[in-house]
Amino acid sequence: RRPSAGRSGVALAAGRCLNSGAVSSFACFVALELLALLAVLSSLRRMAASTVSGAGRQLYAEKAKLFLFEDGWREAGRGVARLARSGEAPDVRFEFQHAATSAILANHTVVDHVTQCNLRANAGAEDCWAWVAVDSFAAAESQSGSLERHFALKFSTPALAVRFKEAFDHAKELNRISEGHSGDHLLYATQHGRLYTLSNTTWITVGDGMAKLLRHGRTGRARFIFTPHGRSRLVACHYLIDDEKCCNLKANKNDRRCWNWTAVELSQDTPRVTAYALRFREVTLAAIFREAFMQARELTRKAEGFPLEADIHAQRALLCRFSDEAWLTMGYGEARIMRHLREGFSRLTFRRDEAEELAANHLIVEHPEHCVLKPNLASEDCWVWRAQDMSSDEPKVERFALRFGSVARSREFERAFNEAKTPRPLLLSPGRDPAELIGPEVGVTVTRSDDPSYRRRFVLRSGFCHRTIRIGRAHANEVVLTQTGVSTVHIEMTLHKSSESPIAPPLVSLRDVSTNGSLLKLPGAQGGERVLRKDVCTEAGDGAMLVVPMLTKPGERESQQPAQVWLTLSLDRVA
């Protein structure tokens, strides 16, 4: 019970004892003493909880409304949400203090964890965040004895909610620094570096120390840290991000052993952009650091899903990798060629079906030995080449083979692959929005009647990237149907031209290329059914259903008809 509930319960029991006369005066005395003791404990508890805001160093404070989940969401009240350090403790904690009663309703450490302290938009609201955390008061407040508590924090404007998320995520970084980045993987380390930082227009010597590159154990993002010799506290800590202004190494004009760059420094209470210079004793050590720095930044790009790279070609194919003098089949998946919007280089990635990790990831470069497509002697629809693969932490030269299922598709891949070798920046002016070049994106989720668990989502883009989703019997198709009567390629789906407008409802174009035909059923009272005409594009919207194959033998009994599959298309705009 809560302290207030406990006090009222003891008082009620004492009153009944006095009225009924069923117990002795000694029992009443014990009940009243217990009531006084609970009041003292409640007061001490409030004093202990208020030490975070009272004696600590406050990093963030903002008015908000707190909700707690206890058999359903309930409003806990309005008050002030804070992020602060408690006294000499290094951990940053979140607390919420009620405005009317000054009671602390929430108090927990902001941890970097798989399931805890991960902010998510509550029911899609832009001004409210929800998360789970081990709260200091949860054990006393919860009837089930669970230490975890579900919180939701609502702000008056979306801008205040964004500011809270930035401060909350930075609190995680500060706590990781105090924990010594436990769980991170070491990528690079050297003791032969001297760090400088720029203050106004003057370079200040931080000192000689240990420079490291670490990869986050959970997110995969890479960071740079620097600790001076003889000191345990970090003086530099930042992520290696793909940004036009940050984390771009530049050779020092006066010293070939020194590299300059800028980054968002995270070791202080407030993040700030800082200029660094790292000088080595030898040119060779400086070259090794640059290579490790670039590889670590590549790991961050991969972990974030290559946010500044857009598809210029995408096809479904079968990937094989040459290992131990034999070809190993990696499985079917999507082969994508992407181009960096700012720098213009291109890469190839391959992700197997239902897999999170990349099976192939390498830059497409002009090289006498790497990225040279050669036809497979055993198959006309297969290409073989070598490349420096970066799908794992360590780059490694691998030999790949891609099989597409048809000669025409393999020729399309060859043309796109060779054109990608020439760097072509797509952002012609600084600060231009990448969405202007990529164009609107429409998500297509396909479900099927013969497999209730089947649910696959594809993204169709306009702009310079044209993509086709193929439905048919061949395993190289995006949607594979093995029923009798289904053609090798039965239907081709592309983005409808009207969907290029961000305010228009999303539509797709369907083209039947089969021999047994297809039936389209549109939702709504005005929808109805129609037969897809062969090699003619027909538009379809959200909720449309495809019947594959269409019944083409009406004179035969139902048992002799080919088995049909109903495919439901769900369309949505990609934010």
Characteristics:
575 residues, flat, seven-stranded antiparallel sheet, 8 helices, alpha+beta
Task: Tell me what the structure shows.
With 575 residues, the chain is an alpha+beta fold. The protein contains 8 helices and 32 strands. It has a 7-stranded antiparallel β-sheet with strand order 4-3-2-1-7-6-5. The chain has a 7-stranded antiparallel β-sheet with strand order 11-10-9-8-14-13-12. The chain has a 7-stranded antiparallel β-sheet with strand order 18-17-16-15-21-20-19, with helices on one face. The radius of gyration is 31 Å and the shape is flat. The N terminus is likely disordered.
The chain-level structural class is alpha+beta
Number-wise, the strands total 32
- Largest beta sheet: strand ordering: 4-3-2-1-7-6-5
Span of the ends, CA to CA: 45 Å
Mean pLDDT: 83
Percent of residues in beta strands? 35-45%
Helicity level: 10-25%
SS field, number of helical segments: 8
Let me know the largest β-sheet.
Answer: 7 strands, antiparallel
Low-confidence stretches: 1-8, 46-54
Rg (C-alpha, Å): 31 Å
What is the approximate shape? Answer: flat
Short précis:
This protein has 575 residues and is α+β, with helices and mostly antiparallel strands. The protein is built from eight helices and 32 strands. The strands form five sheets. Strands 4-3-2-1-7-6-5 form a seven-stranded antiparallel beta sheet. It has a seven-stranded antiparallel beta sheet with strand order 11-10-9-8-14-13-12. Strands 18-17-16-15-21-20-19 form a seven-stranded antiparallel beta sheet, covered by helices on one side.
